[in-house]
Amino acid sequence: MTFKRAFFTVSGLTILSRITGLVRDIMAANILGAGMAADAFFVALRLPNLFRRLFAEGAFSISFVPLFTTALKEGKEEARTFAEQALAALLLVLIPFTTLMIVIMPYFMHVITPGYSDDPEKFSFAITLSRITFPYLLLISLAALMGSIMNALGRFGPYAAAPVAFNLTQLIALFFWNDNQIQAATAQAWAVTISGAVQLIWLIYAARKIDWKIRLVRPVLSPKIKRLLVLIGPGAMGAGIMQINIFIDMILASKLPEGAISYLSYSERLYQLPIGVIGIAISTALLPILSHALRTQPMEKAHEEQNRAIEFGLYLALPAAIALIFIPREILSVLFERGKFTPEVSYYTALAASAFALAIPAYTVNKVLTVAYYAREDTRTPFLISVRTVILNSVLAVSVIYLMLGTKYESIAHAGLALCTSMTSWLNAYFLSQRLKHDGHWVADQHFWPRIGAIFMSGFALGFVLWILSFLLEPAFSQTLWIRIAALGITVVIGMMSYFSIAHITGAQRLDEAWKMMKRRRNNAPPSSPLPEGE
Asked: How far is Cα 30 from Cα 82, in angstroms, rounded to an integer?
């Protein structure tokens, strides 16, 4: 498959996944709101998903694909043997780990939700739901193995489409079992695990269609498996810094009043929409291009690719961040505000969404900078930097809880946790960039800083436009849903026209140059193995 086709296959299916995920979130918000059942479910959803994003779709895929591709050069049977050994290693680790977690869940729940112990009903319900959802980790990890094989073989569609099954399964559960919040949360928990089985079956079927079957074999610690295990550890921390920080937020938010975890979860889903699509596009396009440049062209060419990728990533990410900072209530009123998702829930979710929004540009920069390390086969440095960042985030978050808990600001402390995550995301980007500069692996050229300045100038102008429009259209956002949709549509269209026009005039990113750059990359880049992220 060509790079162009692979790019649009993965990006298009990722967008489809995000759309179905948004529909799922709208329906869940309408039924669950931000009460006890919602808080318990979001904990149960977060737990297996943390390990999934760190290992199954993060470090494992990043580490497995290059080794599997190398094995393919030695022959199909050699690659099949390595895949079977990887499957055996996964099962050897995940079956005991999953079983252990289910057994000790009551004790583990004291660690991850210390505040829930004050509410026996919520604590017990969170344990029940977490035991239901945790087998999802085993199933989705096996699905990640099959999907990584498909990617390495140039079949990107099946793995990129698999997350849609997660959202559709959730939607079916919500549609049929929604008599009350407890029933809906329980149905969603079962749907999480069932969706893992659906995705695994789908990918096994897709692999067999191209005559790729792998058998269950006894675990063998071969040289390739040893290398895989060496790469996975650092890769997990390097790739999952934001997920770890959000998980820390969840632990601390359990000490806050009821609804805090739900506010954080809804706002996270909101800002993950642009992050998912932009992050996929950046990682898909840059890694093979940068790897190719490092091996076949002068170092200046690699620096140029990094500079242009940072500029283009910020150009796309900044308007999404500005929108969530200036008009989060308006967006939430259209997407979620109905049923159990009341205006009060919108208000507290908007606070967290605005704080999280600050991390969107940082996440994009982190993607580019991390790829610069991975292209040089260095997973250790991002890992060490991530450890430092996680520690800083923990210190800041604990300080926020200590200062705000029991005060009149307690109800907005969850937004303080989100702000800590955003701050440490920027610190992570700073540490990554400084190390690259120190090692001579990144040099900003003469165009870089003027364009970055122009991009942020365009962003500030967009913020001013959105602020004026939100003031002028404020009465419309208290009307019926269709009027709110129209008002939000007008705001978005005028805001985007303003942003892209100003960016074009200031030279932040001329539209004709952006199109030429994308066209050049699609036509000239070597084949890649893009990896889908989450549901």
From this structure: 46
Average pLDDT score over the chain:
83
Q: Does the pLDDT value for residue 534 go beyond 70?
A: no
Q: Name the DSSP class of 390.
A: H
The pLDDT-based confidence of 16 (bands split at 50, 70, 90) is: confident
Predicted local distance difference test score (pLDDT) of residue 511: 57
**Whole-angstrom distance, CA of residue 82 vs CA of residue 97:** 22
> What CA–CA distance (Å, rounded) separates 409 from 412?
6
Rounded to a whole number of angstroms, the distance between the first and last alpha carbons of the chain is 24
Q: Return all residues near 177 (Cβ < 8 A) that are at least 6 apart.
A: 183, 184, 186, 187
Residue 430, pLDDT score: 94
Structure-model confidence comparison of residues 421 and 211, the more confident one: 421
Which span out of 326-340, 378-392, 431-445 was modeled with the highest average pLDDT?
326-340
486 torsion bin: left (phi>0), alpha (psi -120 to 50), beta (else): alpha
- The predicted pLDDT at position 148 comes to 81
Give how far Cα 70 sits from Cα of 80, 152, 528, Å: 12, 10, 14
Query: What percent of the chain clears pLDDT 90, i.e. is strictly above it?
Result: 34
Query: Distance between CA 130 and CA 334 in Å, rounded?
Result: 31
Q: Which residue type sits at 417?
A: L
Q: What is the sign, positive or negative, of the torsion defined by CA atoms of 313, 319, 320, 324?
A: positive
Cβ–Cβ < 8 Å for 396, 420: yes
Q: Contact at 8 Å (CB) between 312 and 363?
A: no
Determine contact, residues 151/65, Cβ cutoff 8 Å: yes
What are the CA-CA distances from residue 2 to residues 64, 98, 277 (Å)?
21, 39, 20
DSSP SS3 for 122: helix
Predicted structure pTM score? 0.77
CA distance 14 to 467: 31
Q: What is the mean pLDDT of residues 187-216?
A: 90
Helix axes 60-73, 223-239, angle to 10 degrees: 150
3-state secondary structure 102-141: HHCHHHHHHHHCHHHHHCHHHHHHHHHHHHHHCHHHHHHH
Task: Give the distance, in angstroms, between the CA of residue 351 and the centroid of all CA atoms in the same chain.
Answer: 20
272: pLDDT strictly greater than 90: no
Taking a C-beta distance cutoff of 8 angstroms, is the pair 222, 79 a contact?
Answer: no
C-alpha torsion sign, points 102, 108, 109, 113: negative
Cβ neighbours of 300 (radius 10 Å):
11
Q: What is the pLDDT of residue 322?
A: 95
Task: Tell whether the model's pLDDT for residue 85 goes beyond 70.
Answer: yes
Is the Cβ–Cβ distance between 246 and 268 less than 8 Å? Answer: yes
Residue found by looking up tokens 């996270």 in the block = 268
Residues 6+ apart with CB under 8 A from 145: 60, 64, 83, 86, 87, 90
- Among candidate residues 248, 200, 251, the one with its CA nearest the CA of residue 87: 200
